[in-house]
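Protein 1 of 2
SEQ + STRUCT:
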Amino acid sequence: MVPNTPLAQLAAETAQKFERRFGRAPRWIAAAPGRVNLIGEHTDYNDGFVFPMALERYTVIAADRPASGNGRLIHWNCTRKNETAVIDLNAVAKGEPKWANYVKGVIAGFQTRGMDPGPFEAIMASTVPLGGGVSSSAALEVSTATLLEAITGQTLDPVEKALLCQKAEHDFAGMPCGIMDQFISALGQKDHLLLLDCRTRQPQQVPMSDPAVQVLVINTNVKHELVGGEYAQRRQQCEEAARILGVKVLRDADSQNLEQKKSKMEPLAYRRAKHVVSENERTLHAAQGVRAGNWPTVGQFMYASHFSLKDDFEVSCAELDTVVDIAGDLGLDGGVYGCRMTGGGFGGCCVALVKTEAVERVAEHIALAYENRTQIKPTLFVSRPAAGASVIKAG
């Protein structure tokens, strides 16, 4: 398993990189976490329920004003890609490199609120896996917004900040994401999962501090690319299913309603709706299970979620299914309560609920079995529910 770099250490390392590059210490440091969704997939853009947790994996940004006259420019270095984006505050527009569009969208959102940060230099580092379905994009957006709060000295309401970041992803990255990723990155609390009603945007913090259970994340290391592709297609299919059912969004449908209208629906539309309707029910039941510490029940809902995503929503893939099969074969006796794909699908990560006493053993078994079956080396790590975005140094 890959250990998590503590946030304080990652922040100190990022500050050192800034100092080496610019010859002075950064004035501001901000961070935001990635997330894993325990259950509630492809429900957020249907106004449904999601149940994510913030990961102990972060994007950290260190910044300072330019040492000399810099006009209205931001120089933003990404250590992961060893690239620097130059952003003109007088004309913030989409372009290359693509990762900078997430940053630009947030800056533009602040400017529309009269919160112009002015010129600065920044270095960014991250331990959130890319393309793994654990929200590296939201971690970048929310850490950027948190940095801009520190620079401008003006703080947004956390919900408004999450929505600003979501709009940045829609408008500048072309990804029609729901609200889950930005909400958990902005509002996460240590040792809590977040049950989020995506219609009312009302978050409920659900304690998860039981030391006897761990969340294991298994990255299949199969990359996905969702912008403009299958994700947008699934949204359209859900909208079409809602129209046939005579509801505004699938959140308003229930199992009885769905079965009554089944004969009027194409099989594809029925399956898409069936997943969303049943996933909302599973998510609420799983939250009750976490509150009660009933881990076997939570695990069963996770498995049911995966097979619904595989068969009805068709967003899984052979590698994700392989991980879930291996975990299922281990079962309760082997220390696994449940396992499912997490994120948009078509690759990325699985999430498993595992007995603490067995977590090392389970991780080793899954890693070896997965590599034997796929010839791909996975990456695994354990995380407790982490806190959301924070300003580490405020100038």
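Protein 2 of 2
SEQ + STRUCT:
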Amino acid sequence: MSKSALHVPKQGWLLYDDSCGFCIGAMGFGKPLLLKLGYDFAPLQSDWVRDHFKMSKSELLNDVRLLLPDGTNLAGAYVYRHIMKGIWWAYPVYLLSCMPGFRQLFDLSYRVIASNRQLVSRACTLSATKKL
């Protein structure tokens, strides 16, 4: 299915690694709220996503991504900041994650978790077979 054949969600597409149990669990946890806010979900492995980003598979799967309706692409910790900014109860965490010192800590925490998500999936027996 091409991107043009897809509907355009109000807030954008949250793009996740469909082969990672940790990612599927995290997306599944937030899915009800994020759908209400106007986000939709798609695996990074989707044909239209690979065609849009024109990146190597390893580079594409390196981070969670958010493709906004205007075509802007956010990756990694920026995705979480963008989403937290629009949720009233998460807004204080967003503000904290933008402050000097805390910004670096937030980014480092994201990178450590993202780099080890497959290990966490195996250790916690989080299956990638349960799809969103």
